[in-house]
Amino acid sequence: MRRSPRHPRSRRLTPALALLTTLCGPPALAQYRPPPMSEAQRLVHDGESAQVAASAASASGDKKEAEEKYRKALALFEQALTAEPGNVTAAAGLGASANALNDWQRTVDRVQPVLTANPAELNLAYPVSVALFKLRRYPEAVPLMEQVATADKAEHLIVHYYLASYYLYVQQGDAAATRLKRYLALRPPALAPNDFQIHELLGRAHVLRRDAAQARASFQQAQAGRPESPSVQFGLAQVLELEGKLVEARKLLEGVTTRFPRAGDAREKLARLYLGAGDVAKADAQAQALVKLGSSPAAHLLLGDVRFAQKNAAAAEAEYRKVLQLQPGLVLGQMAVGKALQAQGRHEEAIQFLEGAVRAGANSLELWANLGSVNRRAGRFQRAVEVHRRVVELAPRQALGYVLLGADHFATGQWDQAIEDYANALQVEPEHAGAKLWLARALAHRARDRAGAGRLEDAVRDLRRAYDLERAAPMARRLGAALLETKAYADARKVLEQGVTLPGATWRDSLLLGYARLATHDAQAALEAFTRAGTQTEEPDEQAETSVGAALAEVELGQVDAAVQRLTAAGPSRAAAQVAGANLPRVLVRRALARLESGDAEAAERDLDLVDKLGTGNRKELVKLAQFVRGLARAEAGRHAEASAAIARSLKPAQPWAWPNTRALATAFVLYKKGQVPAARRQLTAAAKKPMPGQPKWLTAMTGALHRREAALAYNAGKLKVAEKAFKAALAGSPDDAQLQHNLACVDWRKGRTSDAVEAWRRLEPSVPVAALNLGIDAQERRKDAGEAVDAWRRYLAGGTGPRMAQVREWKDRLQSLHGLAEPAAGSPADATVEETP
Questions:
Q1: How far apart are CA 765 and CA 774, in angstroms?
Q2: Which residue ranges are recorded for the region named Disordered (predicted)?
Q3: Which of 500, 601, 655, 780 could tie 636 with a disulfide, CB 3.0–4.6 Å?
């Protein structure tokens, strides 16, 4: 065969390409056939097909067809699960089909065992949790739903709604708000028109959270979707109540009940607001209207509360029992019946009723708490403690049980145990107001017992802690009184000054403050407090107590006469009489000392005689002090021997009120009064070696008095040189003393320095009346000027005081009768007169 010149190799290339194609192509495959399904798998496959058809029928609105298909699917899945008990797909399909047919119990019975074997399978947990929720088996349903909700899948959307509903039911606002927000985030757009329902529930959750702003925003969003919804209006009323706008809340609900007469929740809330405002008549009208809408447990519970507010416990009991007829086992109803029985004094019946509820299976915190409290009121304290310990076991992280146990121990005076209980309550709920209040009061009671047993420091510690917990006037009063008892006067004053500013402060708080100020040496502020206390009461007994306190302040202010008058007429109060009786002798001794300082020894003796009459009781120190003052009074009266004896007795043994050198000072005073100046000076010098605080001024004054006395005695004895020296020594200590200057001028006159003396007398006459007497003597005796003498004596007599008034008047009259020419009769003055100064 001839080769083509144009394709010399074409015949060789074709077989090569065919071979290459064969080698590079895919391998030849055998026809695939799936393995034959098991009987269970075939049933599951058919069940799923029936399920799809049921869903399609339901979407098209053919409910009958959908139900038939779901029943077929349910039968198929059930057969599959029977054939293969652990088949997860069959169990999930059975649960979905049974739930679609509302056959909740079947889901639980057939699917839950498979879920127990496969706890992580959400396809099983989802239908089982929904079925349990529908069967109201919440303790089992909620944990499963929470497990499903963590997956955050759109196909499990209804779980968030159910969980939120449950959290609202158990009053857990935060958890409910979280679930509802996730629902809104996951829900498909097709469901958006129903968001108003979710916003309404979200508003209720925020009300539980007490977040008024968020609650108002949620209800307003719900209102935008359904403007005339009575439940939304009810929610807005709750927001107003939360904001404290109770009048606005009532007005809003009044409008709702008018526009929507069958709005039961609004009527119930309105009635509750009326009850809170004390308008029982309006509350009754709303409760009656609510009962007419339907004989519901809530309606009869409300009507029972109205009857209870009307003080008709028997009628309230009847309504509460209707609640239990309509809903047996309702805890609120059981507790309400127990409350009504207690109000009628039927404590034992109340106990039996609540015990019966417990035996019937009721196991709520409220029921146990109420049962224990009824036992306590009935005097069955041991049973109350047992029951309330059960409350602690049920809710160890709540303060309720501990507070109730504290009340049980408080009622029996077991203060240590009560304090421990309330402290435990504050450990779990640090801001629990009731626990703080009753812990403070238990501490106050224990402090009272400790004070009675002489444990004042322990009592003060308890009261300080109590005052920190309860900043109230009564607690400040207790702490202040205890601090006064322990002589912590500064602390007592601080506490009581706070106490008088607190609400509820009374006259007694001001009274104690007066004593605290008195103890801190602020007599003027004390007097103000006592005066204020007197204005805070109109009771004679109480005013008498404040008057006695004011008297003690007046003593410290030197108003001794006013204080004695108050203490003498203490008033009808026994307490005031006791305080007056205890203090009047002391005040009289104080006044006796004041009178001695003014030179009125007779009045001082009268005060001391009254002290003897009143008696000083067992106060030995006051007895000694009265003896001491009497010794000083006797010295003033010139009874020097008696004075020395009384002073010696008063200072033996040594007294707390006396200084170490008091004996020497008193002896110096007696010697001074006797005119024994050198001996008095020696005693004074010895006492001045170690002067006590406040004594230097007195020592100086006493030294000056000794100089004056020495000068007067020397002058009268004609020892003018000694007198001059003594007067000058006295003037060195008191250079501005006009009396000393006058007396020194008398020495000058007798020593012949008459011009200097007359000049001094004329200068001093306005302040020293006796200077006019001496000017008259000089005019008569030295200058023989009867007219000037008469004028001088007339000026002296015009002063109206002085021991020589009668004698000077006689001199003046005689000179006038003689026209100033005759010689003075016997007894006429012959020398300048020196008056001794005190």
A1: 10
A2: 817-838
A3: 601
Domain 489-567+577-591 sits in CATH at: 1.25.40
Buried b (16+ CB within 10 A) or exposed e, 754-778: beebbebbeebbeebbbbbbbbbbb
Q: In the numeric block, which tokens belong to residue 151?
A: 């997956």
- Helix/strand/coil (H/E/C) assignment for every residue in 422-444: HHHHHHHCCCCHHHHHHHHHHHH
Give me the architecture of the 737-817 domain, per CATH.
Alpha Horseshoe (1.25)
Residue pair 326/295 in contact by the 8 Å Cβ criterion: yes
CA distance 4 to 2: 7
- Say what the pLDDT of residue 448 is: 95
Nearest to 87 by CA among 38, 133, 34, 155: 38
Cβ-proximal residues to 312 (8 Å cutoff; 6+ apart), any chain: none
Q: Chunk the chain into consecutive blocks of 10 residues (it has 838) and report each block's average pLDDT, rounded to whole numbers.
A: 39 36 43 67 86 87 89 90 88 91 92 91 92 91 91 89 90 91 88 87 91 91 85 89 90 90 89 92 92 90 92 93 88 84 87 81 80 89 93 92 96 96 95 95 96 94 95 95 94 96 94 95 95 93 92 89 86 85 85 84 86 81 87 87 88 86 86 85 84 81 84 87 88 87 89 90 89 88 85 85 82 76 45 49
pLDDT, residue 831, reads 52
In terms of C-beta density within 10 A (0-12 exposed, 13-18 middle, 19 or more buried), how is residue 409 classed? Answer: buried
- For residues 441 and 422, what is the distance between their CA atoms, to the nearest angstrom? 10
Tokens of 454: 């002489």
Report d(CA 91, CA 80) in Å as an integer: 9
Question: What pLDDT is stored for residue 694 in this prediction?
Answer: 76
| Nearest residue to 297 (alpha-carbon basis) of 261, 328, 263 | 328
pLDDT at position 25: 44
Q: What per-residue confidence (pLDDT) applies to 23?
A: 37
The architecture (CATH level 2) of 395-470 comes to Alpha Horseshoe (1.25)
Domain ranges in the chain are: 395-470, 489-567+577-591, 620-649, 737-817
User: Largest alpha-carbon pair distance within the chain?
Assistant: 212
- Looking at residue 21, what is its pLDDT? 34
Q: Is 604 within 8 Å of 633 (Cβ atoms)?
A: yes
DSSP-derived secondary structure letter, 328: T
pLDDT value at position 833? Answer: 55
pLDDT of residue 832: 54
Residues near 66 by beta carbon (within 8 Å), at least 6 away in sequence: 54, 55, 57, 58, 100
Q: Where would I find the H helices in 615-694?
A: 620-636, 640-650, 662-674, 677-688
CB atoms within 10 A of CB 695: 17
Residue 340's CB: how many other CB atoms inside 10 A? Answer: 25
Q: What number of other Cβ atoms are within 10 A of residue 597's Cβ?
A: 11
3-state helix vs strand vs coil in the chain, percent to 5: 75, 0, 25
d(CA 514, CA 480): 11
Question: For the chain, what is the total number of helices (H) and then of strands (E)?
Answer: 44, 0
Same fold for the pair 395-470 and 737-817: yes
Coil/strand/helix, residue 306: helix
**What is the C-alpha to C-alpha distance for residues 703 and 538, in angstroms, rounded to an integer?**
53
Say how far apart CA 487 and CA 43 lie, in whole Å. Answer: 94
